[in-house]
Amino acid sequence: MQKNIFNNLNLKYFNLKKYWRNIDKQILFAFTLLFILGAFFSFSSTSILADERLDREYYSFFQKHLLYAIASFCLMLFISSINNDFITRSVLPLFFIFFLLLSLVPIIGVEVKGAKRWLNFYFFSFQPIEFIKPFFILIIAKVISSNNFKNLNISYIISFFILSSIIFLLIIQPDLGQSVLLITTWLSLIFVSGMNLYFIFSLGILVILGFTSLVFFSPDKFNYILNRVSSFVDPSKGDGSQSQKAIDAIRLGGLKGQGMGEGILKDSVPEAHTDYIIAVISEEFGSIISILIICIFLFIALRLTKIIINSNNNFYKLSLSGLVTLLIFQTFIHIGVNANLLPTTGMTLPFLSYGGSSLISSGIVAGIILNYTSLGVKLE
C-alpha cells in the first residue's frame, strides 16, 4: 500500500532535472518573489505590534510569518512535483474534510470581534475557509467538465448546490468578503465553461439582492454590512477611520516612501499587518513597490490566461481559470479597501499578509497552478 502511494505521488522516481525542465519557471519565479517580499514586509509591519502593544520580542510575529512562509513555499514545491492525477483524485476527500471543519466553525469556533471564523485546537488555530477555497475550485471544475452528466445544466445545478452550502456556512459566521470572493470565482468558472453572459449578469443581480435582503431581515447580525457601505458612501455617517487612515498613509508615502519602520499606519490600525498590508508597504517603501507587487500579480494572470486560451482540456482550463480568478479578485478586494475604493472588509493579500491560514492557502493554490501548467501535463 505504501509503495502504491509513492507511485501515485510520483516521488519515488522524482527527477530534479526533469522537474526543472518541465516547470513553468516564470510563474515559479513570480510566486517565489511574492513569498520573499511577504517575509521582508512582515518584519516591518509587525515589529511595533509585537514590541509595544503585546509586549513580546519585536521579531516574534516575523518569526512566525517566516516559518509559515517557508512551510507554504515547501508545500507549493511538493504539490507542484507530485502526479497531477493524484491531485485530481484527492480533490473530493480533501474537500469533504475541510467542509466538515468549516461546518464545525458555528458550533465550536472561536469568536473574534463578533464573528466566528476560526477553529482552535489547543496549540494552533486556523480558518477552514482558507483551505477549502482551492479544493472548491477544483471540485466545481470537475463537476462542470465531467462527462457523467448528459445535460450541462445539471452540472451547473450541482455546482450551485456546492457553492450554496459553503455560502450558507459563511453567512452564519458571518463572512461577507469570502462569500463574495467564492461567488465571483464560481461565476468565472461557469462563464469560461460557456454559460450565457446575460444569465451570469442576472445571477449577479440576484446575489446582490440576496445580500441586501439579509441586511434588512436580520439587522442584528448583518447590520455591520449596511454601516460599512454607508460609511464608504458618506464617511460622516459611519466609522470609516481605518480606510481613511490607510489612504492617508498611501498619500504620505508618495512614490518613494517614508523609509522602513517610519510609517505610522501600523501604530493606529489594529489589522495593519493583515488587512492593510499594501497601505503599510506604500507608506514605508513607496507606491512604486506597491505597483511592482500589482505587476507581479498581473504577470501571473496574463501568463495563465495565455495557457488557458491555448488549452483544450476543460478540467485544466476551468481549474486554472478559477485559481487565477481567486488570486486576482482577492488582490483586487484587498487593494480596493486599502485605497478606499471599496467598503471595508477583512481580506488578506495573498502571499504577503500575515497569517498562517492565508499563507498555507496561497501555497496550495500556487502549487496546483505550477502542477497544472508544467510541460508534463496534457493541456491539449
List keywords for this structure.
mainly alpha; 3% strand; 380 residues; three-stranded antiparallel beta sheet; globular
Largest sheet: 3 strands, antiparallel
Order of helices and strands: HHHHHEEEHHHHHHHHHHH
The counted number of beta strands is 3
Cα-atom Rg, whole angstroms? 21 Å
What's the number of structural domains?
A: 1
Strand order of the largest sheet: 1-2-3
* Ends distance: 32 Å
Query: What is the count of DSSP helices, taking H or I runs of 4+ residues?
Result: 16
Shape: globular
- Classify the helix fraction into a percent range: over 70%
Ranges where pLDDT stays below 50 over 5 or more residues in a row are none
Q: Structural class, from secondary structure content?
A: mainly alpha
The percentage of residues in β strands lies in under 5%
Average pLDDT: 82
Classify the oligomer: single chain
What does this structure look like?
The chain is mainly alpha-helical and 380 residues long. The chain has one domain (22-373). 72% of the residues lie in helices and 3% in strands. It contains 16 helices and three strands. The chain has helices at residues 2-9, 16-22, 25-53, 60-81, 84-108, 128-145, 152-172, 176-192, 197-217, 219-233, 241-253, 265-268, 277-285, 287-309, 314-338, 356-373, and strands spanning 110-112, 115-121, 124-126. Strands 1-2-3 form a three-stranded antiparallel beta sheet. Helix 6 packs parallel to helix 16.
Provide a brief overview of the structure.
72% of the residues lie in helices and 3% in strands. It has 380 residues and is mostly helical.
